[in-house]
Model the fold of this input.
Amino acid sequence: MIGPFGQVKTEEQIAAEQAWYGSEKVWLVHKDGFSLATMIKTEPGSLPEGKVKIKLEHDGTVLDVDEDDVEKANPPSYDRSEDLASLLYLNESSVMHALRQRYGGNLIHTYAGPNMVVINPLSTPSMYSEKVMHMFKGCRREDSAPHVYAVAQSAYRNLLTTRQDQSIVLLGKTGSGKTTNCQHLVQYLVSIAGSTGKIFSAEKWQAVYTILEAFGNSATAMNTNASRFSHIVSLDFDQAGQVASASIQTMLLEKLRVTRRPEAESTFNVFYYMMAGADSTLRTELHFNHFAENSAFGILPQSKPEDKQRASQQFTKLQAAMKVLGISGEEQKALWLVLGAIYHLGAAGATKAGRKQFARHEWAQKAAYLLGCSLEELSSSIFKHQAKGLKHSTSFRGGPDEAGHGDGSGPKITALDCLEAMASGLYSELFTLVISLVNRALKSSQHSLCSLLIVDTPGFQNPRMAQRRRGATFEELCHNYTQERLQTLFHERTFVQELERYKEENIELALDDIESSTSLSVAAIDQASTQALVRTLARTDEARGLLWLMEEEAVQPGGSEETLLERLFSYYGPAQGENKGPSLLLKGEKPHLFLLGHSHGTDWVEYDAQGWLSHAKHNPAAQNAATLLQDSQKKNISGLFMGRAGGATVLSGSIAGLEGGSQLALRRATSMRKTFTTGMAAVKKKSLCIQIKLQVDALIDTVRRSRVHFVHCLLPKAEAVGGGGEPRVAHGESPDSGLMTLDVGLLRAQLRGSKLLDALRIYRQGYPDHMVFSEFRRRFDVLAPHLTKKHGRHYIVTDEKRAVEELLESLELEKSSYHMGLSRVFFRAGTLPRLEEQRDVQTRRNITLFQAACRGYLARQAFKKRKIQDLAIRCIQKNIQKNRGVKGWPWWKLFTTVRPLIEVQLTEEQIRGKDEEIQQLKQKLEKVEKERNELRLNSDRLESRITELSSELADERNTGESASQLLESETSERLRLEKDMKDLQAKFDSMKKQMESMEMEVMEARLIRASELNGDMDDDNTGGEWRLKYERAIREIEFTKKRLQQEFDDKLEVEQQNKRQLERRISDLQADNEESQRNAQQLKKKCQRLTAELQDTKLHLEGQQSRNHDLEKKQRKFDSEQSVAQEEVQRERSQREKLAREKDMLTGEVFSLRQQLEDKDLEMCAVNLKLEQLEAELQDLNSQESKDEASLAKVRKQLRDIEAKVKDQEEELDEQAGTIQMLEQAKLRLEMEMERLRQTHSKDIESKDDEVEEIRQSCSKKLKQMEVQLEEEYDEKQKVLKERRELEAKLLSAQDEVRHGDIETEKRLRKDLKRTKALLADAQIMLDHMKNNAPSKREIAQLKNQLEESEFTCAAAVKARKSMEVEIEDLHVQMEDISKTKQGLEEQLSRLQREKNDLQSRMEEDQEDLNELMKKHKSAVAQSAQNLAQISDLQAQLEEALKEKQEIQEKMQALQSQLEFQEQSMVEKSLVSRQEAKIRELETKLEFEKTQVKRLESLVARLKENLEKLTEERDQRSSSENREKEQNKRLQRQIRDVKEEMGELAKKEAEASRKKHELEMDIESLEAANQSLQADLKLAFKRIGDLQAAIEDEMESDDNEDLINSLQDMVTKYQKRKNRTQGDSDTDSEVEDRVDGVKSWLSKNKGSAKNLSDDGSLKSSSPPSRRRFCFDRSDEEEEEEEKEERGASQGSYRSRYKYSSYLKDSDSEDKPSETTT
Done:
């Protein structure tokens, strides 16, 4: 079984836990704490509802308690749980018990889900050493114990992985250790991350905090070293994760603490340090030899000797810290002078009445001397210039009268107020200067990537905790307000953002019991009005916060703290407040006191508002402080403060430390300035009250832009920091010294105020870890290698969500441990770290397999190398054998002597050349590095300048926007007021008129009554009547009054009774309502408790399910392993059977071999017999040799001499082996040195590669710009094409219209021409008949003229139509040319685009090849240098080996001669063989050296060839790159040409549109001509009708031949004209048809004429009918012509029909005439 911390439980622990679960342990909550008890089971109904029976553990008392007072307890294994979120039952008592147990064991840090809880220890623990720091270095949060270093490591790890800004916010009460933890965080980050060049050391940061504690801390009732300002420590990190620069921004300095402070509290520490630790010289300069007995500021030296000694040591430490930060002696002296001047101003004091001046001028003179000014200047700066009065801190821009009126109504300023304002102003300027000097020591010009912010603010302060009977001050309200805002940020990040994320991702989570942030206390302080920008002095009913009310009351006539509190209570009080629910603002016991509930109403602080309006008013003395310091006569003071005034280090006199050279520091400063220059802030930033809100807004906005890590610092007990008293012991618990250092009530209030339990509950119940689908799949894809094999390595995922679901299914995670959102996957707490651990294990396994493969490969390569070496050794031995044959040849000796000398000379020349190249390359590299550094510095400087200018521009723009908003709001307000005034004036006028009319009516009534009275006196008869009526009316009125009064009294009594009944009912209902509310509250608490227990049980069940799931996985794994083992057993069994069979076979073989061995033994016996015979023969020979004993002794002596020489040679060989070993060691050292040089060279190569990468990026940017240009050109081309298509469409429509109009006009003209010719022929006949009549001739001439004009008009229309057709054809041709040209250009553009893409890809490939070639070239150069060095060493070794070889050869010759002598003298053969073996060994060594030399020579030659190839490839690449550049330029030129052609095309299209317009104008003119011709034709038709009548009359006469002859003449004339103009027109077929009709008509008339001539007595009876027909037809023609004007399409058809009908009519008329004839 597994415990809560992952360890395996023993059987005893399991038994104890089971017993715990069986006994059902609970916590009994009471006012003194909580006690452990056991739940006793009772019978149902034995106890009242809501009661349970428990038994206390410490004394066995049995109690009946409420269910709400009982909370479930966790098993003892959870007593010291490292994470409160891992508790089995999460409730208040269990959390406090775990914290108390850990605190008793000196474990002050505890995880609370994603947050950290730190309880401030009473003594300094030893858990912050450097050794502990390195324990947390590089660890993940899940693998490390709770510690503040773990928070820093987690933030640092997130910063490196996500490249996002991080921030750590410390929350808690004053004295809870926030500043100490901030120091530990900074020290850890600086020591672990490191810095470039170690410019940020732990010593430097310790010096920074020493200075900050001296100038910004003081002793209070709650803390002996409390911070009196808020600050942000900004650490900027570079790309490598090292600290590049740092800065500190401070705000909300409690500067009034210099002059006045609460009772029993001290001023800033630096005053006491300086008064106690200054040496004699400094004391003399500061006039500290004698201190004043009293001070207006209360700054007096310490009285206790131990305090003085401690302060003196701190001053020495302060001076050393300033020296560490580079603050010079003169700068330190300037600081001491200003501090001394502040002290002397306090000693000088001010008069309480009369003239405003110093009380003691001698001390004022000392202050003026220290500040470098005269006493008059100092007095004028403090007490003069008060005529302007106290300028209020609002945005009102009233005139002097308004200001004077506002100031005159308030309390009069005193001399002491002016003096205090000057002192606080001086200290504020001094503190800002100190921060600037600290930032000067911390800033750096290095490039930074992201930042880590650490926020430290003064904690919650409540004087009642320190048993102080005073109200909290305005400064304490500001600090509490800051903490409230940070708590609101914690609530927003923990609750609001999480719930919003769940809502966005459609994740349903039941979190009804989690309360929302009320923020009522924050609203009561800083809630702004909607009319904050309107200039008005009127008090409105809109709710506003305390800061806004202070600003208004400071300028209101008669404004005071009483009216301030009245308005505040009217807005936020319990009865009149607009906010529903419980009120967090209550009235105090005294008039100026009020209570404000901080931390969700868990911490009630009583504030004293006496004198708070003075904080809202500017004092000119405070503003004169900066001018006084800048105009000082002392150069060190004026130089420091003038230099600071030139930069933007302070924002509106509030936020200090905005200087900085890094880009991130400028970004932070711009963000804070934006907070002060946007909207309402731009107008209200001069207000002292609104500045507080703006400073906190800037702090919150800065932190909100980063990922926040919260650290909750808890106070163990109030007595630890503020006062005496023994700690309280909880009921029934032993006062254990290790555990009872905690105040349970105080701890409970802090836990409730911080909402830690709610945060833990949402952490446990929700899904705190989440990742985007793609990121999760990319990170954890390694855990499912089968998916990678299934889809392939280059598989493109289309549905990320489906891929993640498949991955999660393969990981076999439990369904309840994760949830799929819309865009990301969510995990329960602990699931993602478990996956990370599995990923690390799998990654380690993969790396191990990779290493094994690499080692196997290296081993195989080594084995291959050994085989090659074996072959080389054999070759060397063979070559040595061959060399023995030519070693005596003189030419060979000469060759072996001269050859090395030549190679050495050549090698030296090559080495010198390479050295020169290396020197040149080094010089180029240094030059390039220098230029790059200069460019980088210039770019950084320009970037900083740009950011500064942009920030200034943004400030100006925001100021202008705010001013415009103010102007608009004021204008709208003025217009509204003017409108209201007009309405009121109109109402006033109407009321005045009504009043005048009423007065007139009253006067008239009075006059009537007076006249009536006079009439009564004059006439008694008439008056009596009126008097009787009058009296009767009075009696009726009185009677009516009495009756109404009686009714009213009755109704009043009834209503009073009803009221009393309603009041009783209301009281009953209120009581019932209160009872129901109490029951609802109890039920709600019970429901929340049950819900929490249910959630805990549910989480416990999920944990059990997850453990069961893991066990099932392990069981499946075990089953699979078991099946594999069984398969292995089966396989081993089969192998064992196979081996048994092989064993039987081998046994048979052994038997056969034994038989063969016996046969061999027999053979050996025979051989032994022969051997014995030979030995006998040898003995015979030895007996013969004994005769030569003398010669044998001589040979033995020679043998001993040879052995001695051999030993000498062996010793020489050992010495040579030693020298060889030394040479190998030197070679190893040289190789190591070459490796180091290679690494440095690789670093240089990497830097060059970075430069090449930058160049490539710039080229890619240029290519992208070209692509953008091409896209723009493509868009322009599309627009041109669109316009071209529109123009073509318009042109086609115009052509259709023109063609249609031309066809219709032509048809109409032809029809009219035919009709006109026919009628004119008739007219010609009539004219010939009446040629003797002069008027008839004139008419004939007119008709001829009209005919000629009509013919001319027709010819002109035909020509115009032809010309228009020609022009239209030309336009068609031009449009076709334009379209072809555009198509060509489009093809050319697409081809250029493709070529550009190809060139870009080739450029990228060439760039990559170039980079690879450069790397190869550099590695080859380094390898060649290394090889040359090795070659020189080997050549030296070779020369030594040659010398040794010659000596060995000489020795070998001597030995050979001796061996020959020995062989001749019958020496033992064994000695000779040993010498020969030694000789062969030496020869093999010699051959190996030769082969080594040859191999090295070949290696050098190969390296030279590779180097030449690399240089050639580099040249080729450079040339190809130049060619590509030229091609790119050519492409750019082509693109420009394409643009020009596009412009020409646009011009041509414009010309075509212009021609089209001209054609349209021509068409319009032709249409006008057509209309005029039609009018003329109508007139001609009318006249022709008359002519037809006349012609028909003449047709009866005998002159038909003349008419026919005239028509024939006209036809012949037309034929002649047609023959002349035969090639001009091809479209006169219709005219020809008409002419043919006239011909046929003439032929018919000829026949009828003959008949008439033959039978002249007969007369035709048809002319009357024909005349009638002609008249009727003329009317029809007029109707048809009107219809032609309505529609052209119908007109052409009808005109054609009229002509045919005319011909038919004429034919039909001729036929009856023939018949009649």
About this structure: The mean pLDDT is 76. The CA atoms of residues 498 and 735 lie 42 Å apart. The first helix runs from residue 11 to 23. The two ends are 143 Å apart (CA to CA).
